[in-house]
Amino acid sequence: MIDQTRADGVLIAAATAFALVLMLHHPTSFDTTHEDGLLLSDWSNGLVHAAMIGCLLALAVGLEGVRRRLDGTRLLTRAGAVLLWAGFLALAGAALVNGFATGRLMASTSDPVIREAGGRAFWALNQSLTALGTMLVALGAAAWSPGLWRLSLPGRLAAGLGVALAALSLWHTTTDGGFGLHVAVAAMAAFALWSLSVAATMILARPQEGP
């Protein structure tokens, strides 16, 4: 059982690390002449977003191991899992919109009016799904904080980061709410800290800590 716990931790860490690499190479617009230099922007839009969805699936598998370890019968554990999975689903939807739907629209017509209107509609949908997904994931991380706190020192770090994620997400939603490139990069970095601390909790687990 402890080997499976560590395998879940390794999967979480690997998926998180790969997602960070993908974000580094994330294209920031369809018009590369307006790139702002924050990211390398040298990988294709479809590849990056498809791989991001793969990372979300891998994280969901690894975090299912965390749910079992936290005692899946507890109310906060179950609530946190639902929030996390729902958040991942919303983020996958946002990736589908930006990675595929928008590109298909642009390729299907040369009408500038349709392109403008469709682009704005898809952008609004992407922003809404991204904001919703980010908030749900942050709230899910916070819901797991009491359980993680009881596990170990890395678990306490993850617990504190989970509460901080939820606070930052709620603050951002009630103040600005926009989800541009800089906010997306910051949100990815903040989530990565939480995810890697959760991975460390699983990888460094002692045999007597297993369920």
Keywords:
single chain, 211 residues, mainly alpha, 7 helices, 0% strand, elongated
Pattern of helices and strands: HHHHHHH
Give the helix proportion (percent range). Answer: over 70%
What count of helical segments does DSSP give? 7
Number of strands: 0
* Mean pLDDT rating: 87
What would the principal axes of the Cα set say about the shape? elongated
Please explain how this structure is put together.
It is a single chain. Helix 1 (2-24) packs antiparallel against helix 7 (181-203), helix 2 (45-69) runs antiparallel to helix 3 and helix 3 runs antiparallel to helix 4. This protein has seven helices and no strands. The protein has helices at residues 2-24, 45-69, 75-108, 112-143, 145-149, 153-175, 181-203. With 211 residues, it is mostly helical. The longest helix is centred in the middle third of the chain and has 34 residues, at 75-108. The model is unreliable at 30-35 (pLDDT under 50).
Summary, kept brief:
It is built from seven helices and no strands. It is mostly helical and 211 residues long.
Give the secondary structure arrangement, pairings included.
Layout: H1 2-24, H2 45-69, H3 75-108, H4 112-143, H5 145-149, H6 153-175, H7 181-203
Helix pairs in contact: 1-2, 1-7, 2-3, 3-4, 4-6, 6-7
